[in-house]
Amino acid sequence: MPRPARPARRARPTVVESRLTGSVRIVGAGLLGTSIGLGLRARGVDVIVADASPTHISIAVDYGAGRPAAPDDHPTLIVVCVPPDVTAHVVAAELEAFPHATVTDVASVKLSVLHELRASGADVSRYIGTHPMAGRERGGPLQGRADLFLGRPWVVAAHDGISYQRGGVIDDLILDLGASLVEMTPEAHDASVALVSHVPQVVSTLMARRLTDAPGVAVNLAGQGLRDVTRVAASDPGLWVQILGANAGPVVGILKSFRSDLDRVIETLDAPEAVGARRRLAEELLGGNVGVARIPGKHGQDRRYAQLVVMVDDRPGELARLVSDIGAAGVNLEDLRLEHSPGAEIGLAEIAVLPEALAGLTEWLGERGWRIAG
């Protein structure tokens, strides 16, 4: 009787060497802290996980994001990943507890944290604030991903109280995690995130609130446009109360301008047949086109992609087959969104590709039996 074949040996994952030396202590084992730990552990870095919640520590450690703290730890770098309203307090405590470590944080506001640290007399010569522009609607260690920061901007909010040599370890952290380093002042950072993150959260939330008492028949008509606008409205209210409160000034300024824009559109639509009304409305809509065109695309390029909508049968393996066929065509899939219609047994996969690849991919997929919806 022939002997059974020996199972193939699994190749050991290649550990890419880290730029960082020494241990990294992560305080706060939520989404960002766990993701940072996972990314650094993949590069062989000794990661220490600390959190006020023993459960969060256990989950992050079980996930492979690091190890629990030990009394003889001497971290080179400390990354504070806690809510904005306690960030300055925790950073100050870490600076005092580890007098030879460089300390950073990942809070989404930077100026108020720096002001609070200076007011408390903390040693800001070993502190520099950062902010990775990455995240998910849901938090907690279970949501952690080692690739969360790949290709994402990560702001370093430099100040004149820290030396270039001391801040170099922060650059190593960001590059190790595959993010794109962006240097800004704390003031410029807070003004920028008010526009690209904090105000969109408010607008998304207010739009989603309109759905609370909407008739079910109306909600059932929701398409991808509504989902796009309201996606971030599912974010944690408690966290956003802190963020918006800490960056209220810049947010209020933009919201007042937004209110003026809304008033202008309302006045136009109140008398849509008035002379010049259609032109004014068209100008408002065109302004939106111009703004969208400025949003960086993949790899940081201002590039618009061509869209292809493919009908996908609602049965196991169909979406995987579609992605496989796109790869077989030699086309890079820039983005994919899947939409289901209530009661239908198909999904609509909206595929984004480079414009020059659209015609060839459409023909290729058609030859393989895919139904092109648009």
Automatic annotation (TrEMBL):
PROSITE patterns: PDH_ADH
Alphabetically ordered keywords of this record: Amino-acid biosynthesis, Aromatic amino acid biosynthesis, Oxidoreductase
One GO BP annotation of this record: tyrosine biosynthetic process
Pathway, per record: Amino-acid biosynthesis
Domain of life: Bacteria
Prephenate/arogenate dehydrogenase domain location: 22-299
GO molecular function, one term: prephenate dehydrogenase (NADP+) activity
InterPro entries on file: 6-PGluconate_DH-like_C_sf, ACT-like_dom_sf, NAD(P)-bd_dom_sf, PDH_C, PDH_N, Preph/Arog_dehydrog, Prephen_DH
Family under the similarity heading: Belongs to the prephenate/arogenate dehydrogenase family.
Entry protein name: Prephenate dehydrogenase
Organism annotation: Subtercola boreus
Phylogenetic lineage: Bacteria, Bacillati, Actinomycetota, Actinomycetes, Micrococcales
